[in-house]
Amino acid sequence: MELIFLGTSSAVPSKHRNHASIALKAFGEVMMFDCGEGTQRQLANAKISPMKIDKVFLSHLHGDHILGLPGLIQSMGFRGRVEPLHIYGPKGISRLNEIISQFGYFTINFPIEIHELVEGKILESDDYIIECVKTKHNVYNLSYSVYEKKKPRFLKEKAIELGVKPGPDFGKLHDGFELKVGEKIISPEQVLGKKRHGHKIVYSGDTKPCKAMIEFAKEATVLIHESTYKTEDEIKATNNFHSTSKQAAKIAKEANVKKLILTHISTRYTNIDDLKKEAIEVFENSKVAYDFMNLKL
Amino acid sequence: MELIFLGTSSAVPSKHRNHASIALKAFGEVMMFDCGEGTQRQLANAKISPMKIDKVFLSHLHGDHILGLPGLIQSMGFRGRVEPLHIYGPKGISRLNEIISQFGYFTINFPIEIHELVEGKILESDDYIIECVKTKHNVYNLSYSVYEKKKPRFLKEKAIELGVKPGPDFGKLHDGFELKVGEKIISPEQVLGKKRHGHKIVYSGDTKPCKAMIEFAKEATVLIHESTYKTEDEIKATNNFHSTSKQAAKIAKEANVKKLILTHISTRYTNIDDLKKEAIEVFENSKVAYDFMNLKL
């Protein structure tokens, strides 16, 4: 699994920070979280083909999180895409496709499926579960979690002992299917180790610190939390429904996550080290994201 | 006068080329020609405040020329803009404001005046005349010209000879007003030199080579012409209603312009020197634009 931070600024971009967008390379695909203006160019610079993206998750419908969508969709069209693109997001998202298609001359030759979400489980595959929860911004904001389903270890020797032949039968049992060996039925439980926890990645979108986020981020491997402001600007953060670095760190601590990545940094701050210091005082394993930062899990 | 090339790619951006946009610093303001995705960030990098832009001229309504507008407008709003923004463009532009304002949560606190243009003179001030002409793209495309009105030289010694006192009276006469000196009426013609030609800047937008452009660009100081393709891809250029570098150079030659700047370069070409060479063979004073290229006139 690999997280690539395509844009880490807040409302206004700077020389070194583009608008919000994060790519997750995992499970043989690339998922995108938010898509601020200029994201297609950031993808090109990060050498990620837009054709590998089938799912875009939008936290909320503020421009700095969505204005890269029309250009991304056009780029996909130029490349001859035929596969559908799924766009997930909060209440109000259902008209997005219609609005984009009215924006100048716009031809979309592939299906765009818009999914208006409510809290809870969004998707489940053999490999992952994706969930969302409503958090506290001045417009409807969804935070997302991606939970990797990790299979228990396969106990090879035990399987051989039970008469299972190495090869495809090992796979069947590992995938959770029973197997007939002679007259005996071997159940997966007989040849599998303990339940294992996969990685859990949580992305806040834009939000004030809130209890819902603590619950939602519990035991996450990585919490990517917005940190628009420094502690000295806490009043501004509160008024604008954003978080400070310290507040994000408190969430990380209370949720007992492994790693905190701060993002959505206001371009008013030139000294980013201060944000990191403030977070580390509360939660040690804190880092400030930068554009094209690559985090391998 | 200063031309700043903010974006010089065609449909798809690359590491070094953003989508189409050109800023003209002149007459105490900044005019913008086209506004592709990511233009607000290019402006920040070029250290041009969006607050200085009062007029945006759009050549046509393809995404790579307009998708930076919503973000630019939002940025202006964040900075507390109250002055109106004028957006000029071809047929179909009148709904632009309505479409942008539906795109997510969008609050615009300043007036946006949309001007749907027909060919001819658009604006005239004491300092300049702006005109447009329809050229040949697969959608309605307008090419623009900015003509600088240059005052004749003021003949100081002649004015003193005629009894005019140095100071504000010089300015009045230079501005074309008559002046009473004692019993005599001094007319501006008595103290002004020959008529002078100001700079003429022409920007093509997206177009095939066409006669209308030759007429329109006649004697221009600078012709900024699209050159999406190399000569070897002339068939593609024709099919897509674009120009090759050689075709752009022929226009420059026939219009007898002083300088040709090629822009809107397809990102398929890594060797830009070839485009320049092809143009120079036809018209010597040719140059290929690059992002943040600054041309002082």
Describe the overall structure.
2 copies of one chain form a homodimer. The first copy, chain A, has 297 residues and is an alpha/beta fold. Chain A folds into 2 domains: 2-152 and 194-296, 4-Layer Sandwich (Metallo-beta-lactamase, Chain A); 156-190, no CATH class. Helices cover 26% and strands 29% of the residues of chain A. Chain A has 11 helices and 16 strands. In chain A, the strands form 3 sheets. Chain A has a 7-stranded mixed sheet with strand order 6-5-4-3-2-1-16. A 7-stranded mixed sheet of chain A has the order 7-8-9-12-13-14-15. The first copy, chain A, has a two-stranded antiparallel sheet with strand order 10-11. In chain A, helix 8 links the parallel strand 12 (196-203) and strand 13. Chain A is globular, with a radius of gyration of 21 Å. The interface between A and B is large, with 37 and 37 residues.
CATH superfamily (homologous) name of the largest domain in chain A? Ribonuclease Z/Hydroxyacylglutathione hydrolase-like
| Topology pattern of chain A, helix = H, strand = E | EEEHEHHEHEEEEHHEEHEHEHHEHEE
CATH top-level class of the largest domain in chain A: Alpha Beta
Q: Strand arrangement, largest sheet of chain A? A: 6-5-4-3-2-1-16
Strand content of chain A: 25-35%
* Average of per-residue pLDDT values of chain A: 95
Oligomer: homodimer
Q: Sheet with the most strands of chain A?
A: 7 strands, mixed
DSSP helix fraction of chain A: 25-40%
> Which regions of chain A contain 5 or more consecutive residues with pLDDT less than 50?
none
Structural class, from helix and strand content of chain A?
A: alpha/beta
Compute the number of helices of chain A: 11
- How many beta strands in the DSSP annotation of chain A? 16
C-alpha end-to-end distance of chain A: 5 Å
The tally of structural domains of chain A comes to 2
- What gross morphology of chain A would you assign? globular
